[in-house]
Design brief:
CATH superfamily: NAD(P)-binding Rossmann-like Domain
Distance between the termini: 38 Å
Strand order of the largest sheet: 3-2-1-4-5-6-7
Low-confidence stretches: none
Order of helices and strands: EHEHEHEHEHEHE
Structural class: alpha/beta
Number of helices: 6
Bound molecules: NADP nicotinamide-adenine-dinucleotide phosphate
Mean pLDDT: 95
Number of strands: 7
Number of domains: 1
Strand content: 15-25%
Radius of gyration: 17 Å
CATH architecture: 3-Layer(aba) Sandwich
Largest sheet: 7 strands, parallel
Length: 242
């Protein structure tokens, strides 16, 4: 592992478990000062304890925040300013999925996916870009999904949010790459997490491990500054045939 990340400051949203927690852990192990957020306090505290045990003296920090709410995002970035003294890396990972046919999906369920998966990434990116402008650059990595390019039955709301974040990421990349801001998005297939309460019974060896996504994040962050990995697709090598 190169030392290029040591001392950088990162915010990972939705990092109390799953992919976000794995990314936060890898960043901490690479010497990055990390702040995390999630909506549930108990799970957030448990994640912070785990991060701080994984690298003693790493002093990871975090607060309860819902990225779909502009006031929470504003408070979160004030917290990051205070606790980390600046920001170099934003990982927009917070996300949820509700899978029903369009007729059965309620407007509230639609709104919650668009508000978290898409608007939340915009709110956080907007706040981060203001800090990157002062700092002279930074990274934004959006955790999208293969559902951002492959539609499926029962996925209308989730597909819309992830197709949206792909377009958002590419436009933001073009807006800001000359400001030394590198924007990337990762489109994973099935990852072995408790995504949207699917529960442990669906955990399977064949799925991508959350740590594999964390490795990709570190790879993006460690490319030479002349080179921008703008998007990555990643999928299980041998998907379950059922
Ligand atoms: N697992 C997969 O197969 C897969 C595949 C492709 C892409 N992804 C994407 O990867 C990302 C992470 O998914 P995961 O599988 O790690 O899911 P997960 O295990 O359910 O974790 C989701 C995390 O996001 C947090 N979160 C949810 N809504 C939030 C909000 N409004 N504000 C702040 N935090 C919020 C959750 O904590 P709280 O509930 O406490 O807020 C939790 O920490 C998502 O964007 C998902 O779409 C997942």
């Amino acid at each position: 592992m190169s030392d290029s990340l040591r001392g950088k400051r990162a915010l990972v949203t939705g990092a109390s478990k799953g992919i976000g927690l794995a990314v936060a852990k890898s960043l901490v192990q690479a010497g990055v000062q990390v702040a995390i957020c999630a909506r549930k306090d108990t799970e957030l505290r448990r994640a912070l304890q785990l991060l701080n045990e994984s690298v003693p003296d790493s002093k990871s920090t975090g607060m309860v925040a819902d990225v779909s709410k502009t006031k929470d995002v504003s408070d979160l970035f004030s917290f990051v300013d205070r606790e980390l003294g600046g920001l170099d890396i934003l990982i927009n990972n917070a996300g949820l999925g509700i899978f029903r046919s369009t007729a059965d999906l309620t407007p509230e369920e639609w709104d919650s996916m668009i508000a978290t998966n898409l608007s939340g990434a915009f709110y956080c990116s907007h706040a981060a870009l203001a800090r990157f402008k002062q700092a002279g650059g930074g990274f934004i990595i959006n955790i999208s999904s293969l559902a951002g390019k492959n539609a499926f039955a029962g996925g209308s709301g989730y597909n819309a949010s992830k197709f949206g974040i792909n377009g958002f990421s590419e436009a933001m990349m073009l807006d800001h790459r000359n400001d030394n801001v590198r924007v990337s998005y990762i489109m994973p297939g099935s990852v072995d997490t408790d995504f949207s309460g699917k529960g442990t019974e669906e955990k399977s060896e064949w799925k991508i491990a959350p740590g594999d996504i964390a490795d990709l994040v570190l790879h993006i962050l460690q490319m030479p500054s002349r080179t921008l990995i703008s998007r990555i697709e990643v999928r299980p090598s041998r998907p379950n045939k059922n």
